[in-house]
Design brief:
Blueprint lengths: L2 H12 L9 H10 L6 H11 L2 E2 L4 E2 L1 H8 L10 E4 L2 E4 L13 E2 H15 L20 H12 L7 H5 L8 E4 L6 H14 L7 E3 L1 H4 L17 H8 L2 E5 L10 H13 L10 E7 L13 E4 L13 H9 L4 H6 L13 H12 L13 H24 L5 H8 L5 E5 L4 H4 L2 H10 L6 E5 L8 H10 L8 E5 L8 H11 L8 E5 L8 H13 L5 E7 L6 H10 L6 E7 L1 E6 L2 E7 L3
Parallel strand pairs: 6-7, 6-8, 8-9, 11-12, 12-13, 13-14, 14-15, 15-16
Antiparallel strand pairs: 1-2, 3-4, 5-7, 9-10, 16-17, 17-18
Helix pairs in contact: 1-2, 5-8, 11-15, 15-16, 16-18, 18-19, 19-20, 20-21, 21-22
């Protein structure tokens, strides 16, 4: 079916509209019938991403939608091309540098995904073993011979050069296994884009579409550091790991190497911002292999737009990530670069030699090397951090987690203990966590609000670990409402942060609902604040601490009101703000 025929059928199926747009409901039904999308949820994603929704009548601008799906439809100077029975829009372009051949979501959805749904059965696609394929089972091992190479046969170019009009540098580099169903892969990228609130123009570098499948030697060389993969990673803001159902990607040497680069070698982007590492998969409960209904779930590096802002940000992040299949994260703890597989033996040799620092990349790599151990430990630790709260709730044996986290070299760690941890988390678990914190941390958030079994012992353990975190800049600890913290625990924490006087820039301590705190706690906190010369922002909450006197309150307010320090302090029912050099008088908080 040509673009014109598809548009005509959509119009006929959707029916006329009194306004400029086509009614949304019938249009969604038409898109489903034409197999342009697989579910109503995916149709809604498509309509929002394309900007085709018209307000306020919620109709759809068909021209905008079709020009987003098929760029040539709205551009009369471009001719539709049909190559090998596959519909490709426009003449494309030549992009000399493979690292600038990222693919956009509308190119991935409008051309690749829609063609899979349209041609898999129609053309009788079969996999490498001769089994008939369905749209839900098409992976890249099948897509390349059935679609990408036939579509690019006349030009012998990469797929991105076929659908792009100019170079497309990557926003994200995607690491994945070719055996992952393509439609699941697309779901993951859609959800990732939505969670991070990217515009529809966000681009993802995917090797199958970026590299020229007719001349792989031109894009892949012996030295892993000089391949198109590595060059694309340098341009991106981070790495997105798409995890398949069996976590096979973590047994593939290229995938492990890419994750290693993102977590060890390239910790910053070219602009100096932290290099991000996100992991997405399709949850089993939502149906895998393109069965519809969405279901992609991600564990993200820090907060994303979907987590919102404010006090509940950490909780929203935990809720969002909670459905990520726990067993997949646990499988990542078995990553072992020495036993990883590669389609080409020369790739395995060159990657191992590169990691070991060998001069001869094609020679026999060492069977064991300290760099292998370091890589394995760092990657194990990255995934341990993502699963720590769940493992604690399940009350698993955590010694392996502890060793991995300590060796992880993480710079940012956010752990919000909720759910079952409110009733089960005990001091011993917090002590183990404190002993496992990597010394490389620059930002640490630990939320224990509502954890009823915690006592001063937990606070004392954390306090003992803080002097060793020599790079710590941001610290947030929440012991509100539930944990039984007295002056002993609060004073220990105040003393523990003092050695960070030259590095700590943001401090947030929440002891709300701990009525045992007295003037001694305020005095210790005030003394610590006076010594933290690098501090720029501080939040202190001792709400509900009725034993604190007015004199102690005034002392703490004075310590947090120096020039250049923004402060928000709540004691009992009294609240005080200090923004730089402007004092705001005490206000009575609402009961």
């Amino acid at each position: 079916m040509s673009v014109s025929e598809a548009v005509a059928e959509i119009l006929a199926s959707a029916g006329p509209s009194e306004g400029a747009g086509v009614p949304r409901g019938p249009l969604v039904d038409a898109l489903l019938q034409l197999r342009c999308v697989q579910s109503k949820q995916e149709a809604d994603q498509l309509l929002m991403a394309s900007g085709a929704l018209c307000q306020p009548d919620d109709s759809v601008d068909l021209k905008v939608l079709c020009s987003w799906l098929w760029p040539s439809w709205a551009n009369e100077k471009l001719e539709e091309e049909v190559r090998g029975g596959f519909e490709i829009s426009g003449p494309g372009c030549c992009i000399e540098r493979a690292e600038e051949r990222a693919i956009s979501l509308h190119q991935l959805t409008g051309v690749v995904a829609s063609s899979i749904r349209r041609f898999t059965v129609q053309e009788g696609w079969k996999d490498r073993d001769g089994r008939e394929l369905t749209p839900q089972t098409v992976d890249l091992y099948s897509l390349v011979p059935h679609f990408i190479k036939p579509a690019t046969a006349s030009r012998k170019c990469s797929f991105v050069e076929l659908v792009a009009t100019s170079p497309q540098p990557p926003d994200w580099f995607v690491s994945h296994w070719w055996g992952e169903p393509v439609l699941d892969f697309v779901k993951c990228l859609w959800q990732h884009s939505r969670d991070r609130n990217h515009e529809a123009t966000a681009t993802y570098w995917v090797c199958a579409y970026a590299n020229n499948q007719w001349d792989l030697g031109g894009d892949v060389c012996e030295d892993p550091a000089e391949t198109s993969f590595r060059k694309a990673m340098r341009l991106a803001r981070g790495l997105l790991s798409v995890l398949d159902a069996g976590a096979i990607c973590y047994r593939r040497i290229w995938c492990i190497y890419e994750i290693h680069v993102a977590n060890v070698e390239q910790t910053e982007t070219e602009s100096g911002s932290p290099y991000l590492f996100d992991v997405y998969t399709v949850g089993a409960d939502a149906g895998r292999s393109g069965s519809g209904g969405g279901g992609a779930i991600g564990i993200t590096d820090g907060y994303v737009a979907a987590d919102g802002t404010g006090e509940k940000q950490a909780r929203k992040k935990r809720h969002r990530e909670w459905k990520f299949p726990f067993e997949l994260v646990q499988k990542a703890l078995d990553i072992d670069i020495q036993t990883a597989l590669a389609s080409e033996e020369r790739d395995r040799l060159s990657i191992l030699n590169s990691i070991a620092g060998a001069a001869d990349l094609s020679g026999c790599p060492p069977a064991a090397h300290e760099n292998y151990d370091r890589l394995n430990s760092v990657l194990h630790g990255r995934f341990v951090a993502a699963s720590w709260v769940r493992a604690a709730e399940l009350q698993l044996e955590m010694s392996r987690h502890s060793v991995a986290l300590a060796a992880s070299q993480l710079r940012r760690l956010t752990l919000h203990f909720g759910g079952g941890c409110l009733e089960t988390l005990q001091d011993a678990a917090v002590t183990l966590l404190a002993e496992s914190l990597p010394t490389t941390l620059e930002s640490l958030f630990l939320g224990f609000a509502g954890c009823r079994k915690l006592t001063d012992a937990a606070a004392v353990s954390l306090a003992a670990s803080l002097p060793g975190l020599t790079k710590l800049r941001d610290l947030e600890l929440r012991f509100a409402t539930g944990a039984k913290i007295t002056d002993l625990g609060c004073c220990a924490l105040a003393e523990g942060i003092t050695p960070r006087a030259d590095t700590l820039q943001q401090l947030h301590l929440d002891f709300t609902g701990n009525p045992s705190l007295t003037d001694a706690a305020c005095a210790s906190l005030a003394e610590s604040l006076l010594q933290l010369k690098a501090l720029r922002q501080v939040w202190l909450s001792l709400g509900g601490c009725k034993q604190v006197s007015k004199e102690a309150r005034a002392m703490l307010e004075e310590a947090s009101s120096r020039e250049g320090l923004q402060s928000w302090v709540t004691i009992g029912k009294a609240h005080c703000d200090h923004k730089g050099s402007v004092d705001v008088s005490l206000e009575q908080a609402q009961p």
